[in-house]
Amino acid sequence: MFGSAIQKHQDERALMEIQQGPNETLKTYQKRYNDILLTKPEVKNKVAYMAFYRRLTYGKLKKALILETPLSKDELTTRARQYVELEELKSKEGKTKDLKDMLRKRGRSKSPRKAPVWDIIQWDRGKS
Questions:
Q1: 65 CB-side CA count, 13 A
Q2: Which portions of the chain have biased composition (kind: Basic and acidic residues) (predicted)?
Q3: How far apart are CA 112 and CA 35, in angstroms?
C-alpha cells in the first residue's frame, strides 16, 4: 500500500516539475507535458490541471483556463491543442503580412500608388 502511494506522489511531482520556459512556445510546452502525462495515467484530473496551469506562462490559454476549468485531462489537452493551432495560424498570417509589406516597400505591390496630398493641392491651385 505504501509503495503505491509513493509512486503516485512521484508521478505528481514529475508533472509539477515541468515548466514553460520564458521563450518556449505553447506547442513545445504542451508536448513535453503530454509526453509525461501519457506515462502517468493514474494522475488525477485536478492534479494534471494544476500542474499544467501553474507552470504555464501568462497568455490567452491561461486566461481561458481561469474562466473555465477543464473537467478532465482529455479536455485540458484538447483545449491546449486548439490554442497551439491558433498560434500557428496567427504565425502564418503574420508571415504573409510581412511578405506583403516587404513587396510593397520594394514597389512590387499591385495596389496603385497614391499621389502625395501636397502634389494634389499644387495641381489643384494651378488649374484655377
A1: 26
A2: 95-104
A3: 52
Of 80, 65, 79, the closest CA to residue 31 belongs to 80
Rounded to whole angstroms, the Cα distance separating 45 from 74 reads 9
What per-residue string of b and e applies to 74-97 under the rule 16 or more CB within 10 Å gives b?
eebbeebeebbeebeeeeeeeeee
CA dist 40 and 25 (Å) reads 23
Is 52 exposed, middle or buried, given 0-12, 13-18 or 19+ CB atoms closer than 10 A?
Answer: buried
* Each residue's pLDDT tens digit, 60-118: 899 999 899 999 999 999 999 999 998 888 888 777 776 667 667 766 555 555 555 55
Q: How far is CA 12 from CA 18, 59, 64, 92, 127, in A?
A: 11, 24, 23, 36, 81
DSSP 56: S
Reported as type and span, the H/E element at residue 85 is helix 73-105
Grid coordinates given for 45? 484530473
Cα atoms in the Cβ-side hemisphere of radius 13 Å centred on 5: 2
